[in-house]
Amino acid sequence: MDVRTRILEAAAGLLSQAPEADISTRAVCEAAGVGAPALYRQFGDKEGLLSAVVDYGFEQYLSSKRAAQPSDDPVRDLRDGWDNHVAFAVDNPNYYRLMWSPGLSAPPEAAAEAHRLLLAVLERCAAAGRLRVSPETAADMVMSANSGVALSLISRPAIYADPEFSTRVRDAVIDAVTVPPTAADDAPEDGRTAVAAATLGALLRDRPPAALTEAETALLREWLGRLSDTSTPS
C-alpha cells in the first residue's frame, strides 16, 4: 500500500469514529505511521487532506451511481437517486457533514461529481419531455433540497423524526420541476413552451445539429435555457 493510500485509510478510520466531522493531522500521522512532512507532501495542508478523505469515502457511493443502469423512466431514477443520497448521508454522517462543510474553501470533487450525475439524469428527464425548467435550474433545486434534507436528518434527528420527511420533500421538489407523462399538452401556454424548450435543449446537447456551427448551437442552447425557466411551476 502506498503512502497516500495509507494516510487516507487512517484518516477515514479516524473520521468514522470522530464525534464531530473533524480529525487532527497529528492523529492521522500516528495512525498511518508516517511523519507530518509525508502528509503535507501528499496533501498540502489539513484542508487538502480533508477534501481528499471526502472523495475517498464517497468513491464507493459514486461508483455505484456511475454503474447504475438507467431505467425507462428518468423521473423514477431521479427519485431513486434522492433516496440513495439520503441513505448514504445517514449511514456516513461525518463524511457527509465534511463534504458540505463551509470550512473547506474548495469543495471536494465528490460534490461536483454528484452534481454532474444528477444533471445527467435531469437531461434525460428533459429529453423525455418531463422537465418544466432547464436541467441546470432543476439540478440546483433538487441538490439543494436533497442535501438540506440529508443534513437535517443527520444533524437534528430528534426534530426531523417523521419517517416520511424525506419522501414528502422529495415528492414536492420533484413535482415542482417535472411534469407527468401526459400533462404537457394540458399545461398553460407558457408551461408548454418551457417544457418544449427544455426538451429541445436536452436533445441539442445530446445530438448537436450538423447544420449549425458550434457557436450557433451554444447560442441556441442559451436561448432555450432561458425559455425553460420562464414559467412558474404550478
How would you sum up this structure, described in words?
- The chain has 234 residues and is mainly α.
- It contains 11 helices and no strands.
- It has helices spanning 3-17, 25-32, 36-43, 46-67, 74-91, 93-99, 109-127, 135-155, 165-177, 189-206, 214-228.
- Helix 4 runs parallel beside helix 7.
- It is globular and about 60 Å long.
- The N and C termini lie far apart (55 Å).
Which descriptors would you attach to this protein?
mainly alpha, 234 residues, 11 helices, single chain, 0% strand
**Can you count the helices?**
11
Helix content: over 70%
Overall pLDDT level: 86
Beta content comes to: under 5%
**Low-confidence runs (pLDDT<50, min 5 residues)?**
none
> What integer value in Å does the Rg equal?
21 Å
C-alpha geometry: globular
**N to C succession of SSEs:** HHHHHHHHHHH
- Major sheet description: none
* SS content category: mainly alpha
Beta strand count: 0
Head-to-tail CA distance between termini? 55 Å
